[in-house]
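Worked example 3. Consider a protein that binds adenosine monophosphate.
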Amino acid sequence: MVVRVCVVGSGGREHALAHVLARTADVVVTPGNPGIPGSQATPPEEVEADLFVVGPEAPLVDGLADRLRGAGRLVFGPGADGARLEGSKAWMKDLLAAAAVPTARYGSFADAAAALGFLRTLPGPWVVKTDGLAAGKGVLVTGQLDEAEDDVRTKLSGESFGDAGRTVVIEEGLTGPELSVLAICDGTRAVPLAPAQDFKRVGDGDTGPNTGGMGAYSPVPVAGDDVVGTVMDRFVEPTLAELCRRGIDYRGVLYAGLMLTPDGPRLLEYNVRFGDPEAQVVLPRLASDLAELLAAAAAGDLRRAPPPAFGPDACVTVVLASEGYPGEPRRGDVIEGIDAAEAQGATVFVAGVERDGDGRLVTAGGRVLAVTGGGATVAAARRHAYAAAGCVSWPGMHYRTDIALSESEEAPTG
Ligand code: AMP
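Given these inputs, the predicted complex is written out as structure tokens:
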């Protein structure tokens, strides 16, 4: 039995993991943050726990799961080999091709002339991605060829994203609703969690630059069991099989970011960790034991745990961001109203914060809080989340007002 779990990371996703794991286990979070209960500065290598859950992509790409496993720990999270799915988009696209997984047409380039040549063969819209990690901000989608060309040049020069951009992946632009399906993998088997949809752009109506994510909701009406089944059969299973063929024992979350195009679902990206803010709406809906599920996956045998089960209630989360985000966020603004938001029955997941000299919680990052509301319908959950978010304030705080709006239109009555 898993009695003590160590969650590695310091953001809203790790808070959501800790919050739901704490239903059945003792949880420590390292390093966590002043808003996450159980946070401690001890490095994960020095923590005693029955199970380690590595939250963010950077330590996974950096091999933290390998090091912990090497020390005999039970770890949920892929090794550096599997984490390349997220650490290198070019490697990921090549793996998709080998696994015959449907995805956008693409080329990867380190050379500007070749990149621009390929770009000009595509009809547009154009998509330019950094090969390496860029905190969700390395993707340009544009209808302007000249803008795409400029972006290729600045990324390849290292000016905009450093070494992460010295190889770019250029893709044809696809259209359609987006969907995130997170699957829990034990190396050879995978089970899906409830789908979620997130909102990437900073502004209402999907305007402004991309962010790490400004809100999310679950369940997703367009993604019934049939769609999830297709995602497992045509995307997740073949990917896991191809990873196995390459000798990669993938134990962790495989997060499939998909677009439901008129020609069927296409894979946009894989992430190797729970989505943030998807975790803040998917995990609270779990009716089964998360610690048991993740421990079974980490041990290489998902059959040891019951399949994940979800309650009928919907969740909506609204991300509250600091002045300047997604550019340089302003630090040090005093956050008020978290208790009032929680008094409304919402859950406030805490990310970019620190304590100032007077012990007050202040902003210390771009995405500061994610306020999750629940309800019998997406509309009810949305009202709950926004009522609670309205209790919170700090100078320069901003958030989207249209998270889950189009999914909340209730049938007119009378
Ligand atoms: P990624 O990090 O690869 O998921 O890209 C971030 C966001 O860019 C996605 O959530 C989509 O909104 C958009 N995007 C990525 N690839 C494409 C594509 N081929 N066509 C249209 N939009 C895309």
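Take a moment to read the result before moving on. The mean pLDDT is 93. The first helix runs from residue 12 to 21.
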